[in-house]
Amino acid sequence: MDCPLTIDVNRFIRGGQLIKYESEGNARIGIMPRYGDADSIQWFKVKPNCTFHVINCFEDGDEVGVWGCRALASVVPGPDQGSKKLEWFPTKFKPAPGKPIEDAILEDHLLFPRPYERRLNVQTGDVKERNLTGPNHFPMDFPMINGAFTGLRNKYGYTQVGHCDSSPAPGMERFGGLAKVNFEEENNEVSIKVEYHIFEKNTYCSGAAFDPKEGGVEEDDGWIITFVHHKDTSISEAYIIDTKNFLNEPVTKITLPFRVPYGFHGAFMPIQLQITDSSNLMKLP
């Protein structure tokens, strides 16, 4: 991914953004054969965007499918020089006072990150692009899939659901739920099927990861594990959600002894626990 982001220290010293999205800049995607080198990269020009997180990529005949969470501006915070106060988030990412976030999404034409598809034809060089969800859906980012399908055509993806509500830290995006997207089932002409698992009020998550069930036979046989923080009670927990029954309550909520800060990324890996001979305490091998 080559997105039109620029880094300018002098601009930052003058009160502007260190990292800035250039809406008129060029964006492109490079595809390299698995056993290729730099000279074998094939570049495809795409519409200007910021795609920080890829959901999955796969081959489909002469096309390479690229699914990612695309935004129409940088979500990297920095002072907005056009605002009266140097708030650390672009003004256009915030709805006007008294207006719901859904109105801001409509006005900014899908500005926030959301699932997006590109089809890149390696024979003709043609590019096809489309939004996978419409303005009636929540912003989504930090995607994950069943790792066994990395590089293969998959059916399901999972994301964190963005909520840009009021916050003590201006512009701090929070994630108030999770989404399960079905790439093979479309609700209408402009959206694939999406299921939402929204948390309790003032509860936000971070670091979500997919854990496949041992012995699972279907792609969505697994769990989503995520850290959540309850703003009203200052309690942090780990939620484990059955992805087969995504709309149900978490199967387990584990209270944590400390808080995992917002913005942390997560990954899951199995580890073998052993019991010592001298005690019943558990320890890592």
Automatic annotation (TrEMBL):
Q: Lipoprotein: present as a keyword of the record?
A: no
Pfam families membership: RPE65
Q: Is Oxidoreductase among the key words of this record?
A: yes
Q: Which InterPro entries match?
A: Carotenoid_Oase (IPR004294)
Needed cofactors, names only, are:
Fe(2+)
| MF terms (GO), sorted A to Z | dioxygenase activity
Alphabetical keyword list: Dioxygenase, Iron, Metal-binding, Oxidoreductase
Q: Which family does it belong to?
A: Belongs to the carotenoid oxygenase family.
UniProt-recorded name of the protein: Carotenoid 9,10(9',10')-cleavage dioxygenase
Which organism is this protein's natural source? Gossypium hirsutum
Ranked from the top, the taxonomy reads: Eukaryota, Viridiplantae, Streptophyta, Embryophyta, Tracheophyta
